[in-house]
Structure to design on (410 residues):
């Protein structure tokens, strides 16, 4: 009997004793789906340095091959988000076929509205009509690409903002944004939805046009029901209660998705759950609370957005997926009936203890058995390392190397 099995039996006996339905919890964990970002597999860094990694993916095809490894060992990461033009190819149908040959689906399509010289004063919000036209046309091109790829998500992040007081009229920029997004929204087929990602600063350092969840929420309301807010965990001022924002957006039916990552300071894009796993757990607590409420309609895209500069990228992505699985597994262990009773009685300590107890539970044996029942190894990272893929691609991919700063193609 594997070491996990013994621990699993002890754990599930305890969970059943706590009145929890272990089979439905395992079913939920097997149905979890987490999308990984293509840009998380290629060399990236900070404005100070890109520490190139031997074997790092150089092409979109290689990024997909690496993403397939994450899915092979975790079983819950069957789709990959793309970023255009970082993932521009001559034949998107061929790319789709290659992805499907790897058992992958192509997910959210991210237009790039921040790396063209034309966007110096903004993209949709720019005072320059040519820049606005360029931005809108690029998004229309991304809609066409998404159709070819079978993707139904257009994921919009605008770096737009200003970096000095008086640089531009804030309300005029707001009007340009609404006008541009309305044209793009109208061009999406009915099967497609737009996710609107906000961020409180960087690269703009005075104001950002889509600076917080409230601005994104109002913009989505004005666009239509197929526009929803994307919550990137790295896009909030320190001290922000992100799980409250999540609960609010769930209740408004406007939570479209996440960019999971973690941070210590700013938009650090670190491995998910590597700095503050309790926050990630509390976010899943709100997600499950919403899922269990029949009055709430939820269609959430669970995506990772990380850019790892030091650790091997595939291993970090596997750690991230596993940490998302663990956060969900722990949040599934909360006795929600007892919690609601304690909350209504105002028994604050009892309520907190229920939330903390589930977080303190070591769910690794449960996930190990879930993986084994999915035909996978109990520990994805150990299995990936044993698979020797990293050595193989290091030998195959003698990188020609691209520029030396920041994001790919910078
Ligand atoms: C901006 C962001 C956005 C992406 C980029 C890769 O900080 O989070 O989601 O376009 O990172
Ligand atoms: Mn993001």
């Amino acid at each position: 009997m594997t070491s996990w099995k013994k621990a699993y039996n002890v754990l599930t006996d305890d969970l059943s004793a706590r009145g929890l339905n272990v089979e439905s919890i395992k079913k939920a964990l097997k149905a979890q789906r987490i999308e990984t970002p293509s840009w998380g597999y290629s060399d990236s860094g900070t404005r100070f340095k890109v520490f190139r990694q031997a074997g790092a993916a150089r092409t979109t095809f290689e990024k997909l091959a690496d993403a397939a490894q994450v899915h092979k060992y975790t079983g819950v990461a069957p789709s990959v988000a793309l970023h255009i033009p970082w993932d521009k190819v001559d034949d998107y149908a061929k790319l789709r076929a290659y992805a499907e040959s790897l058992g992958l689906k192509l997910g959210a399509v991210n237009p790039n509205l921040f790396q063209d010289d034309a966007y110096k004063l903004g993209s949709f919000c720019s005072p320059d009509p040519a820049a606005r036209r360029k931005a809108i046309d690029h998004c229309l091109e991304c809609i066409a690409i998404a159709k070819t790829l079978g993707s139904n998500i257009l994921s919009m992040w605008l770096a737009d903002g200003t970096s000095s007081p008086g640089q531009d009229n804030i309300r005029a920029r707001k009007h340009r944004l609404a006008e541009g997004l309305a044209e793009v929204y109208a061009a999406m087929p009915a099967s497609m939805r737009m996710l609107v990602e906000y961020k409180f600063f960087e690269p703009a350092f005075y104001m950002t046009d889509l600076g917080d969840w409230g601005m994104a929420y109002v913009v989505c309301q004005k666009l239509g029901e197929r526009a929803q807010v994307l919550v990137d965990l790295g896009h909030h001022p320190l001290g922000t209660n992100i799980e409250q924002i999540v609960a609010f957006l769930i209740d408004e039916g406007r939570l479209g998705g996440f960019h999971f990552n973690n941070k210590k300071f700013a938009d650090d894009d670190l491995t998910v759950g590597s700095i503050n796993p309790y926050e990630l757990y509390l976010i899943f607590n709100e997600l499950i609370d919403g899922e269990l409420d029949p009055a709430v309609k939820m269609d959430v895209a669970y995506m990772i957005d990380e850019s790892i500069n030091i650790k091997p990228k595939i291993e970090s992505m596997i750690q991230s997926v596993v940490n998302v699985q663990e956060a969900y597994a722990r949040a599934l262990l909360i006795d929600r009936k007892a919690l609601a009773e304690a909350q209504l009685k105002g028994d604050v300590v009892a309520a907190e203890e229920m939330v903390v107890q589930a977080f303190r539970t070591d769910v690794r044996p449960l996930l190990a058995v879930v993986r084994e029942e999915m035909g996978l190894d109990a520990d994805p990272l150990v299995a990936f390392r044993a698979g020797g893929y990293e050595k193989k691609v290091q030998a195959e991919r003698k990188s020609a190397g691209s520029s030396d700063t920041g994001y790919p193609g910078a």
Notes: The CA atoms of residues 5 and 365 lie 7 Å apart.
